[in-house]
Amino acid sequence: MLPHNAMVVVADGHSATIFRNIAKYGIELSKTHHVTPASLSKPAHMAIPDEAAANSQHDEAAFAIDLTHHLNTLMLQRDLDDVAIIADPSTLGVMRKHYHKELQFRLRREVAKTMTNSDIRSVQTLLD
Question: Which of 62, 65, 75 is nearest to 104 (CA)?
Fold first, then answer.
């Protein structure tokens, strides 16, 4: 079971949604914010269309790394107690390599599954 006030991150290589478990007992998620590459990074150069297609995998990995750094910062600054991460297998693989030790210590659940387009009830059921 996921503790009260735990942060739940549902991510893929393009975006992430961050929830909080607001239930005292059980799981009831409340969306706190949506994260995109643009919201995590400084303004970047505009790629030409051919480069954009070639850089797709690199961009997904870069987003996973940036997202993990963002989570590490949240964990360290806000002293969060618990976190669960749900991400597609390739994104989760990249993220794992960049977890801060504190994030690793407070990680309560990891699920390698694509859930970014799922409704909140499906995410809650997966974690229950």
Answer: 75
